[in-house]
Amino acid sequence: MLKRMNTQKNAEKLNTNYCNSIDIVMGSEIITVEIITQELIPEMAELDRRLFGVHKALSEEELGVIYQHGKLLAIRDEFGQMIAEAQVLTSPIPDADEPLVQVLPESSGYREGSAVDNEHRGKNLGVAIARAAEVVMRAEGKRDAWGSVRIENAASIRNLTKEGFLIIGYCENYYQGEGLEGARIIVRKDFQTGPNSLSQLDVSPSESLLMTPGRIIEDGVESIKVPVVAGDAIDPAVHQMIKEVLSADFIGIGMVRDGSVSAISFVRQDSYGDVDAQESILEGQRFLRTHQIA
Q: What pLDDT score does 203 carry?
């Protein structure tokens, strides 16, 4: 509850004062997230190259396009060095490579990407910049946020679901012509219905639960755990399994992890939240089907 209150309070501050930074409360610490200006795009591009390498990094031109359609966020260390970044879209980009970005609804925001310098991980910077992204979207009047992520990117899935995003779709050809390299799961967070306590189902997993897919009943809720291995290697069987689980009216709500082995937790849609939350999920899935994204 404190997390949601802080997010709403910051959104109101951003909307009324047009400030160029957002203070995120993380326990007893305050982390300042900067909304960067256009002239600082080269600095963010350099950080992106350092974190992702020249072939996967966003170019200055690409960051410029995102800037025109949203916000660029950054965190600096005590020496002024940029050490974390995030990109948020608040309007569609019709000629984007990503089909969801092409048709992004006016009422929605999109989490384009985020990253933290390796030397500064474990300091809650990723969580802080993710919450700042939500502040931006709320301040822009958005009612929900979308995103896409590789199945093998366990860290991002874990962070997104911890922040209240649900896995509601799978798109095998999200990036055309790349095979399963271009496949993505689709996540969405409704700011109206909010996170649900069912996300706690994934605590303290046993090793067998992580390593073997299967169904369990916990507190009367049917849950399916689908194991994934974090990294670059793609397992077609896992992709097929997630596709089938989502087709069977389950949604992803969280992730458990043991070293390089993780498992995504799915529950039945009609087990999640109240009637409004369930209708919101169906609304998101109808949107994906209408635009042939999932």
A: 36
CA dihedral (206, 161, 242, 274) positive or negative: positive
CA distances from 28 to 31, 147, 250 (A): 10, 29, 37
Could you give phi then psi for residue 82, rounded to 5 degrees?
A: -70, 125
Report the predicted TM-score, pTM, of the whole model to 2 decimal places.
0.85
CA 136 to CA 192: how far, in whole Å?
16
* Alpha carbons 74 and 72: distance in angstroms, whole number: 7
Query: What would the two tokens of residue 232 be?
Result: 């670059």
For the chain, what percent of residues have pLDDT higher than 70?
82
- Residue 161 zone, left/alpha/beta (φ > 0; ψ -120 to 50; rest): alpha
Gyration radius from the chain CA atoms: 18
Is residue 270 classed as helix, strand or coil in its secondary structure? helix
Query: 36: which 2 tokens?
Result: 């960067």
Helix (H) or strand (E) holding 265: strand 261-268
